[in-house]
Amino acid sequence: MGLSFSLSADTAQEQGLDLEPPVRMEEEMEVMEEREVEERVVEIEHPLPCLSESDTQGIIKGRDLFGYVGIEAVLDQMRRKTMKAGFEFNIMVVGQSGLGKSTLVNTLFKSKVSRKSCTPNYEEKISKTVHLQSVSHVIEEKGVKMKLTVIDTPGFGDQINNENCWEPIVKYVNEQYEKYLKEELHVNRKRRIPDTRIHCCVYFLPATGHWLRPIDVEFMRRLGKIVSIVPVIAKADTLTLEERLEFKQRIRQDLQANGIRVYPQKEYDEDAEDRILNDKIRENIPFAVVGTDKEHQVNGNKVLGRKTKWGIIEVENVAHCEFAHLRDLLIRSHLQDLKDVTHNIHYEAYRVKRLNESNANGLEATFKHTVTANNMS
Fold this sequence. Notes:
Blueprint: H1 9-14, H2 22-45, H3 74-85, E1 87-94, H4 101-108, H5 115-118, E2 133-141, E3 144-152, H6 167-185, E4 200-205, H7 214-223, E5 229-233, H8 241-257, H9 272-284, E6 287-288, E7 295-298, E8 301-308, E9 311-314, H10 323-333, H11 335-376
Parallel strand pairs: 1-3, 1-4, 4-5, 5-6
Antiparallel strand pairs: 2-3, 7-8, 8-9
């Protein structure tokens, strides 16, 4: 005969016995663990505004400082230093004769900076081969000095047979990288290395209204790998607005179909703000531009423009052409970025390639020397 008995909850509590079911105990333990995790998350999400002795970095903002430190004054220091030293900008213009390359460059910088404009009694002759001409000027505006170098490419696309006409240009661009690399590798190098690298190549497309020509595709495909290319439709006032829009769409399709990279590339956007700005620029590429260095009176104001029988085409009026967008890209918003992309992307790729070649040649020479020594022994 078995015995059975039961204890009340009060009795069990008095005797220190735990009659809670195991399931309830597991639930309480899970709740406690969740609370510990939440506490740790809160600590991570809200770090203390001071630096600890560990590797964890804290952010000390203005409200956490005891007073004014003066860190933001470094911007003034950088500005003064840049204004004193000045900076360099090298732009190459490529396209067949008669597309207004020199005129557009003069319009961009509001001065006669092209070789054609600086040479008295200049007569343009069709070059039998592509050769490059460069001219430099120091432009000063509001105390800021810029050494501008314009590289022109007479003879490009002017021949009956234009096969490999891009080779002298590719060679020239790489020679500037090589020159900069040699200066960098000197034991006692200059404090400031002269920069002759091409920061931007403006490629002029004739306003045919059709599609990219084979020479356009091949040039931009090859040059887009070593320099920042900005394509423009030259003398866009020869097209109607509808023709211009259709031509721009066809060009964008051709660029994408042929894998041609033009500036600004999406992979170089640093943040969301850059992406939004650059997306607007990419929507307008290629820029339909008109260039002139002549002023006309329009509603009592002097404007740069081309006079026709139907009126005046205002160069800087976005309703007439996209010159203002090109100017803003090259000078007002992306000039420093063009220099950074040239140094950090294109030049860096060339530098790595050349150093790898040098290392490979050095290993090969060492191997040959070792083999020769072994054979002699």
